[in-house]
Amino acid sequence: MLPGWRQWLFALKIAGAALLALGLALWLDLPRPYWAMATVYITMQPLSGATRSKALYRVIGTVAGVSMAVVLVPPLVDAPEMLTLALALWTAACLYLSLLDRSPRAYLFMLAGYTAALIGFPAVTAPDTIFETAVSRAEEITLGILCAALVAGLVLPESVGPVLAARVGAWLGETGRWTADVLSGAIEAPAVRARRLRLAAEAAEIDALATHLAYDASAQSRAVPLVQLLRGRMLMLLPVLSSLADRIAALRDLAGLDPAVKALLADVATWSEAGAPAAEADALLARIAAADESSLASTSPGFWIALVRASLLDRLRELVAIGRDCRALQDGIARGESAPRRALAYAGEFGGRAPRHRDHGMALRSALGVFLAILACVAAWIATAWPDGATAAMMGAVLCCLFATQDDPAPAILGFATWTAVAAVAIGVLLFGILPQVHDFATLVLVLAPPLILCGLLMTIPRTMPVGLALGVNGNALLAIQDRYASEFGAYVNSALALVVGIVLAAVVTRLVRSVGAEHGARRLVAASRADLARAARRRGRGDRAAFAHLMLDRLGLLVPRLAAAGPDSDLSRIDTLAALRVGMNLVSLRRARHGLPPGAVAALDAALDAVAEHYERPRGPACASLLAVIDAALLAIGAVDTAEGRREALLGLAGLRRALFPGAPPAGAPPLLAREAA
Prior knowledge:
- By secondary structure, the protein is mainly α.
- It has 3 domains: 5-158 and 359-513, no CATH class; 160-349, Methane Monooxygenase Hydroxylase, Chain G, domain 1 (Up-down Bundle); 518-678, no CATH class.
- It has helices at 5-27, 33-43, 48-76, 80-101, 106-120, 130-154, 160-184, 190-210, 224-254, 259-273, 278-291, 303-335, 360-384, 389-402, 410-434, 441-459, 465-479, 489-513, 518-537, 545-566, 577-593, 599-617, 625-639, 647-661, 672-678.
């Protein structure tokens, strides 16, 4: 909880940027300089590249929101119900788009939504000044954005590039330790297994951090293409390692590891612990290819053992190739290169835009929540003829948008209301006890600097970040610094009450309409993954293995923290999330392999794919014995084919599918008595 020098630096920078914005706004004679101060606390981030990207999108979003307010308010000012509906619909639509985007650009949509509310509702009482008000707000907000970006970029900037390189190095280091454990056959403890799943969430965090790299001033900013290539390979490492661990365990239980495989596993483990040097990777790949000599004929007595062994070697080959690429790309990113120095494996699989999970249902619920919250605040405003009712409507819109990504935003919104009330008391003391004694800007800076620095320090600590944000944004709004002291106690109390009431109304509406638990969110993610697995088995959608891995692992990154929040008693804790990912990878491989098979083998394979689709279209539960029989029939039918272009890939895909769905099943082709006993 104690801040270090980086936290102190950020706190001093954000306080300095806020005071710079205040001084410039007073010098330019802007009507509400405190908007510029509050904007600094919304915009500024510890990393300069993140501040620049947020600043850019905030400027664009502000212009869009201000423009919409100018378009809506004048023609609808005499019809308050229609104006309220129009502003509420605009805010809800923008929030919906923001939640579907899930990139830094999402901030543009969100800001465009609630900026229209911030400008539109206060202008209802003076619609003839809407254009001047809109221009002033745009100037004040843009000034705050520019001050935040300027200070972040010029005063001891902390670049995204080195932080990203360190995070990637730590991630690959943890993956290397997992690789050593897998290749040695070590049994994972539950805590270690949970840590492995956390890698997916950390990969998503690295992905989010990498989106700011293009706006960075570091040498690594040129390495954006390499980061995109590395991201795909990082995600592919997780299912490859999970599959490799499964094949090693299966082969050890069936017939034991032969000396050639043992030697290969040991050498790959040594290579991985040494940092995956590229010079040794080619020799390892040649040895793996030489060890994989089996014909995989289903008529041979050791068919299943040979198939598992071939699958193990195939995963080992992928591990070495991807590990070599990761090391080369990591070095290139550290050097700030824009293109790889050598050819990469699987070059055609990792290009293009990575798909992300989109939950249209929850986005619609969030949009409905902000829509109803605005209506509730405006209804209270009209019913009570409250002079500051516009403030409540503004805060209802802003708070519903800011916390819409959470499963249950209500506690966070109520916490924001609590700290806004604390800020109101503290600002009241400052505003009526100290500021009347201030008569010049230098003294004002001395008075404001300590609380502004404190807000910045609170924002640097994850547990207190919402507190710092509430104090920094709403505190500056309540302080309402202008070119001359004109505060009145009754008006101040009324404004503070409106802030708190608007936030509380937003929390109440959110609790009634939008709030769900972490377990509910986890179930939606699991259901979406099962639907995609069924779609892949039905041979619909893109047959792109890397794109499918991106989507499934994006969901896994969202699922891991929700599973932790759901608790060990939830039935979701028993889900093998990496096994489901392996199913998806094998389905894509099977779809690709079926085009090279003869008609009879294609029919057997399609029957297996249809059975898998039916399994994932049903409610979640264990796979049935009939599905195992269909997969085995496809294995035997394709194994009996002498030569075919997709024969090997189809056999390995079916073997992987069988191991993921039925890890405890007897070997394929086992005598019926043995199969019944195992069942």
